[in-house]
């Protein structure tokens, strides 16, 4: 976590101003929240997750300066409305001295105004996104990456702390960074994508972009599907145009009725749709090869 970001948040809190800290799973929200030294309320910690449970926990803490609420997005339900009313009343008692930090996957916006009541104004005083992390700020036991490896980790992870750790462990243990062969990596990526596929931080990670590309459904026409199936059955071999005509256009009895241009266009469309997964090579006068 950059010192500039910490200093910015600290300045808000010093003035008794509250802030939403937004970040997808794996961005290190909880670790950041615990580093702030206020009362840390983790809803996942309490077996009995009710508004009264959380109110009593804050009362018992006797905290009057800083209350950090983890997984705040989990509390955006009608049954927790009394909890938000309590937070507003407590702030009124300690105005200009008590601040809240709400750690959340996504912005708690105007659509939640009715649920939060007057606390909404407090919750939206400041909204800040967790920035990417420098890989050199994290470490795993028994491994110190070279400068070249740091650059590689930066590109692969996009500065997402959870992905940085996965990369460090994989490089240390010489294990795979293919999500299909690395269950921890796959689980982390899928958890992040389950929250958002549009968060800007995702575009910085090569691992996530490659995963999205390889798991995005491809809409193929019937002819494109038959051609792809034929090429996959003969992967690494040249498939002739006569073979393609027989399989892709089974109802056309006369090969002369299918021009080379039509086949080239079909292959061109298929190539464009599957380029993230396959490479289709044209062998002039012979046919096509899937590599």
CATH-defined superfamily of the largest domain: P-loop containing nucleotide triphosphate hydrolases
Listing every helix as H and every strand as E from the N terminus to the C terminus, the arrangement reads: HEHEHEHEHHEHHHHHEHHEE
**What's the structural domain tally?**
3
The rounded distance between the terminal residues' Cα atoms is: 42 Å
Radius of gyration: 27 Å
List the keywords.
alpha/beta; Rossmann fold; Arc Repressor Mutant, subunit A; 3 domains; 5-stranded parallel beta sheet; 3-stranded antiparallel beta sheet; 13 helices; 45% helix
Question: What would your notes on this structure say?
Answer:
- This protein has 291 residues and is of the alpha/beta class.
- It folds into three domains: 3-129, 3-Layer(aba) Sandwich (Rossmann fold); 135-214, no CATH class; 222-290, Arc Repressor Mutant, subunit A (Orthogonal Bundle).
- Helices cover 45% and strands 11% of the residues.
- The protein is built from 13 helices and eight strands.
- Helix 7 crosses helix 8 (161-173).
- The longest helix is centred in the C-terminal third of the chain and has 15 residues, at 260-274.
Would you spell out the secondary-structure blueprint of this structure?
Elements: H1 3-14, E1 19-22, H2 29-34, E2 39-41, H3 51-61, E3 66-69, H4 81-93, E4 99-104, H5 113-116, H6 119-123, E5 127-129, H7 147-157, H8 161-173, H9 183-195, H10 206-214, H11 222-233, E6 238-240, H12 241-248, H13 260-274, E7 280-283, E8 287-290
Parallel strand pairs: 1-4, 1-5, 2-3, 3-4
Antiparallel strand pairs: 6-8, 7-8
């Amino acid at each position: 976590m950059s010192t500039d970001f910490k200093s910015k948040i600290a300045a808000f809190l010093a003035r008794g101003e509250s802030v939403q800290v937004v970040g997808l799973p794996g961005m290190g929200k909880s670790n950041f929240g615990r580093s702030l030294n206020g009362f840390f309320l983790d809803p996942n910690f309490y077996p009995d997750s009710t508004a009264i449970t959380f109110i009593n926990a804050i009362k018992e803490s006797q905290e009057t300066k800083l209350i950090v609420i983890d997984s705040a997005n989990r509390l955006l339900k009608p049954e927790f409305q009394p909890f938000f009313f309590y937070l507003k009343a407590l702030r009124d008692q300690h105005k200009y001295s008590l601040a809240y930090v709400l750690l959340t996957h996504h912005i708690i916006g105007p659509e939640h105004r009715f649920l939060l009541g007057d606390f909404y104004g407090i919750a939206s005083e400041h909204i800040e996104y967790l920035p990417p992390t420098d890989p050199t700020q994290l470490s795993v036991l028994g491994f110190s990456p070279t400068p070249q490896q740091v650059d590689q980790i930066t590109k692969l992870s996009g500065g997402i702390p959870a992905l940085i750790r996965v990369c460090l462990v994989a490089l240390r243990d010489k294990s795979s960074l293919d999500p299909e062969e690395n269950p921890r990596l796959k689980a982390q990526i899928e958890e992040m994508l389950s929250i958002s596929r549009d968060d800007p931080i995702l575009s910085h990670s090569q691992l996530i972009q490659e995963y999205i590309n390889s798991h995005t459904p491809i809409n193929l026409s019937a002819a494109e599907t038959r051609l792809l199936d034929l090429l996959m059955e003969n992967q690494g071999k040249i498939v002739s145009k006569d073979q393609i005509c027989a399989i892709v256009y089974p109802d056309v009895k006369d090969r002369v009725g299918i021009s080379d241009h039509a086949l080239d266009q079909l292959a061109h469309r298929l190539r464009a749709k599957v380029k993230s997964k396959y490479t289709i090579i044209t062998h002039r006068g012979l046919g096509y090869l899937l590599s």
